[in-house]
Prior knowledge:
This protein is of the alpha/beta class. It is 43% helix and 18% strand. It contains 6 helices and 5 strands. It has helices at residues 42-59, 76-96, 105-113, 120-130, 140-158, 186-190, and strands at 2-7, 12-20, 26-35, 64-68, 100-103. The longest helix is centred in the middle third of the chain and has 21 residues, at 76-96.
Amino acid sequence: MLILGIDPGTATIGYGFVNIAPDGSAEARAYGTIRTDRHLSMPERLKVLHEDITTLLRQYPPDVMAVEELFFFRNVNTAIPVAQARGVLLLAAAQAGVPVVGYTPMQIKLTIAGHGRAQKLEVQEAIRDLLDLESIPRPDDAADALSVALTHWHFLEGQGGSAAPTVEIGPWAAVLPGGADPALSQSEHEGWS
């Protein structure tokens, strides 16, 4: 199974392809970032994003795309463009016939590092260990995308390793091991994205 993890953004979008072998081991197949020029208009940036993600979906056809849910509570000026970029990513997946699932930053931290208050470096070190990499994946956006893919892998393990579910983007706290950490405040969500 090939899982594409996505860390959505406007200027930089992280992607990470994680291959799950029949023995249940995970391997980073490809990861990196899609960058858009800040001098382009928003429609032009979204076009570049759509073209680049479509190319990746053709080059490495995934079985499922796992996308980080957005959490913005203060800066609407940031939230709207990122939501637009996320919409383009979801559109490209739908056009390619790839099912999409979503996970919140807290769920990703909980799954990868074992607790919802994990710092970025702690999550990145866990990614390195889980994927048996020599070093922490760079840039950070690519590492974040790999963490989203690994979160979906762990979700599937909890479901007996079944084929990727065809589900809509939505909250997963009730089904992820350990559930959500209600102690996290809204401001702690913002530090992850």
